[in-house]
Amino acid sequence: MDKQSVIIVGGGISGLYAASLLGELYEVTILEASDRFGGRILDLKREGFSSILKYGAEFIHGEADLTFSLLKEAGISYREVNGTTYRARKGELLRSEMMIEGWDGLLEAMSQIERDMTLVEFLNTHFKHPECKELRAETIRYAEGYDTADPDRISVKALYKEWSEEDRTYQISPGYGVLAAYLIERCVKLGVQLHADCCVRNINWDGELCEVRTAMQTYSAHKVLVTVPLARLTDTDENTKLSFFPPLNDYKKAAGDIGFGAAIKIFASFSTPIWPKDAAFLFSDQAIQTWWTQLPYTSNILTGWAGGNYAKELSKLPEQELKQVALRSLAGTLGMSEARVKSHLQAMAIANWEQHKWIYGAYSYPTPRTTSARRLLNTPVADKIYFAGEALSNEFSGTVEAALLSAKAMVTQMITSLRSA
Question: pTM, whole model, 2 decimals?
Answer without folding.
Answer: 0.95
